[in-house]
Automatic annotation (TrEMBL):
Annotated source species: Columbina picui (Picui ground-dove)
GO biological process: one example: regulation of Rho protein signal transduction
Annotated GO MF terms: MAP-kinase scaffold activity
GO cellular component, one term: membrane
Name of the protein: AKP13 protein
Superkingdom to which the source organism belongs: Eukaryota
Length: 148
């Protein structure tokens, strides 16, 4: 999630001033509705929502106009993919409270990615972490919460 999506409209669907377009993402367990911004008469853009798993979802482009029913203009598939940020978030979630998990940071020290890349990865891991499915009893300290 959190990437810019551009929608190209057909000539029949060109943006009129009184029409509002939005996208509805329907996954296996979560549905997102996002507003769009008109770039020009033939293009819209939005920010993809964060999602709770890697899967292909249905995306419907909907249009509404006051006094008229909502219309589904187009439908397409959209894929939420697994990337290094998702992998890192899952790793950190499953290793909460495990001191050996700190070896992951040693990998980053050895590979020495540029600071800007580390900041970008940090933002993406934080976003992926917010959308993980975690048990209600999960916490960052792990199962053993004693501070010995």
């Amino acid at each position: 999630g959190d990437s810019v999506i551009t929608v190209q409209l057909t000539e029949e669907d060109q943006v009129e001033d009184d029409v509002v377009f939005y996208l509805v993402f329907t996954g296996s367990t979560v549905q997102h509705c996002t507003s769009t911004r008109k770039i020009n008469p033939g293009s819209l853009e939005t920010i993809s929502p964060g999602h709770d798993c890697c899967e292909t979802v249905k995306v419907a482009l909907c249009a509404s106009r006051e006094g008229h029913p909502v219309l589904v203009v187009a439908e397409e598939n959209f894929q939420f993919v697994q990337d290094e940020a998702y992998d890192a978030a899952q790793f950190l979630a499953t290793c909460a409270g495990n001191q050996q998990a700190l070896n992951f940071t040693r990998f980053l020290d050895r590979s020495r990615p540029p600071a800007a890349d580390v900041d970008f990865l940090d933002e993406k891991v934080a976003l992926a972490f917010r959308h993980l499915k975690l048990p209600a009893e999960w916490n960052v300290l792990g199962a053993d919460q004693s501070l010995s």
